[in-house]
Amino acid sequence: MYSSDQTREDERLIYHADLLNQLSNPKRLEVCIHLSDHEEDVNSLAKKLGISQSALSQHLTRLHHSGIVKVRRQAQFRYYSCDHPGVLRILKTLAELFDVESKPKARNIAAGSDSHDGKS
Prior knowledge:
Layout: H1 4-23, H2 26-35, E1 40-41, H3 42-49, H4 53-65, E2 70-74, E3 77-81, H5 85-98
Antiparallel strand pairs: 1-3, 2-3
């Protein structure tokens, strides 16, 4: 029988594996990079990414259910952002490792920082 420590460790590993699985899709990774700097509505983001609103909505739903992106509703609009501290650190690390031209401008990526600057 599992101890409570082993159960917590298993749950943590499952959570991290799901997070990495979500980021393993190139479009979802690109969505997170764009949303790491500021929040954006589906229409604007779909145009920037060159994909349909329907496809983007499916990616955003998966990312939201995994806790990676947040959604803010204002009237009939939904604005999405990514300020998940772990994801921001992953994006920063990827940018440093691969010297990506469009490095994420993630908010407060300092180690352990999870503050939010409230930009809209």
